[in-house]
Every structure is written in C-alpha cells, then in structure tokens.
Amino acid sequence: MNVTNRSVRIAPNNPVFDLPVIVGIEEGLFAAVDLDVQFAASYADRERDQTNTPHLQRLKEQMFEKGSADSYNVCEWASIDRIERGERSGAIAALRASVAAQAIITFDEALQTPRDMVDVPVVVQHYTGSHYTTVQMLESAIGADHVNIENGGLPQMRYAGLKDGTYRAVTVMEPFISLALKDGAHIVASSFYRGGEVVGIDLSHEERQRFYEAENRAVDLINRDFYNYAHHVTAHAKGALEPRELLTAFVRYKHVDPYPEQLFTRAYNWMAEHGMTSGDSAHQDLVR
User: Fold this and answer.
1) Measured between alpha carbons, how far is 37 from 19 in angstroms, rounded to an integer?
2) H or E element, residue 216
3) pLDDT tens per residue across span 43-60
4) CB 147, CB 193: distance < 8 Å
5) How far apart (Å, rounded) are the C-alpha atoms in residues 273 and 139?
6) 86 and 221 assigned to the same domain
7) Domain limits at 120?
8) Which of 47, 137, 174, 270 is the most buried (most CB within 10 A)?
9) Same domain for 90 and 111
10) Are 48 and 74 in a shared domain?
11) Are 89 and 227 in the same domain?
C-alpha cells in the first residue's frame, strides 16, 4: 500500500466537534500531507440514531466497530467507554481539538441555579458528553442521589422537546446553546470539556501525526476567522440560527494534545466510582 495516499475515513460526530476535520478537508490541508480524508457517512445518516439506540450501535460507533471508519471523536469519558466495551482493537490517540461546553438550559423561571435542580429530570443522550457533564455539574450542588438523568437522544431532539414543553430541562452543546438563548431560554449551568480521538490500531503513529498536523492547521484557520466556518456548525440548527448568531463563548478550538496518564486516571477513577466502568484498565491499555 502506498502510504503517501493513505485513505482515512472519519465517522461523523456533531459538526461543532468535527469542525477542524471539515475545515481540513475543505481547505486541502489533509491532501497537503498526502492523506485522503473523508467522512464515511453524512450528518443526515447520523440523525437516524434513535433515543433508544444502544450506544455501541449508534452510527459512529458501529462504523468504527465494523471497520468502515478509521477514527471518530467523542467525549473523553465516552472514548474510554467505547474502547473498553468495543470488540474492534483501537485506542485513544489524543485529546480532540474542540473544547466545547455542554449547558443545562430551560425556559422554566423556577430553575435558575444547579441547587434548583433537585430531582428535576434533565434530558441528555446517555453515555455522551451531555450525560457525563450533567452528572458532574449537578452532583456537587444537590448530591448524586438527587441528580435525575433521562435519555432523550440527539441534541436536536432534546432541544425540540424542550421548546415544545415535553421536557423541562435539557443539556445541549452548540449550536443549540446559542439557539436556546436566542429563543429566550436561560442557562442553569455549563461545563467545558475535551474529547478523545478514537482510532483503529491499523492507523500508524506516523499517519496519525500527519493527520493531527493538518488538523492543527485547520484549528489555526478557524481561530483566525471563526465566522468563515461557523455555517458548518449552524447547519445543524436547520436554518433556525444564522452563522453570525453563533456565539463564540461556548466553543473554542486548540491544537490536538496527547492524553496524559494523570488526566486519564482522574477521569477513569470518576467513572469507576459511578459504576460506568469495571475499573480494570490502565492508561497504557487504552491510550497509544
């Protein structure tokens, strides 16, 4: 195989997390380092995931498990979960470039701070950043026994349910934070977090380095002119939010970083304390 023409297929996450890859493809940055990078499915394909779809059967996870995608990004805790639970050999190669917020939002005037959320259902997508960050945002304020998590599927589904009154509070990321604020909702709490880059073991270290070199150049372009690329993120809102209405307060982008053992251990121990992992893995087992 000619490594200079290596094909790399990416399973799509939400556009706000994928933006550096989108820009890298659009601007020819991957091609410049002799990588043929493409998404293995469309965002429309991803929207077929249903509320009750088991997390390892969601589109990006299934594409990776079946070998039709070489990589995808997901929140830090989920990257640990997917490598532990999945059957395909893989690893967490890095911390992703997107540094995004999840925010608990509501239209309910009775809910103003985390201390108002005792036993109030908060709708998330199970075993994603919305789930893990919601637990973290609330448990220190009201105690773990009073954190009430409900599964509501993809972010657009959760926001639609909030807006039509089906849900009282939901956790979402951009562009739905900006859209919610535009529509008159308010934020109860928010939390920034990183994510993990899940890769198959057949993607070599040298190929990964070239990939992240190009992705870092995409980050530089985004940071130079965010609104030149914001339309990719607001497209997720289906015309309800103009690119210039996307706030810069709830997402930023930085160069891809290694995933150090100390950071991994903190996340892994927290997951073990909450029954989200068996606790049997070490950094060297999951991170390459």
Assistant:
1) 14
2) helix 205-224
3) 999 988 988 889 999 999
4) no
5) 13
6) yes
7) 100-193
8) 174
9) no
10) yes
11) yes
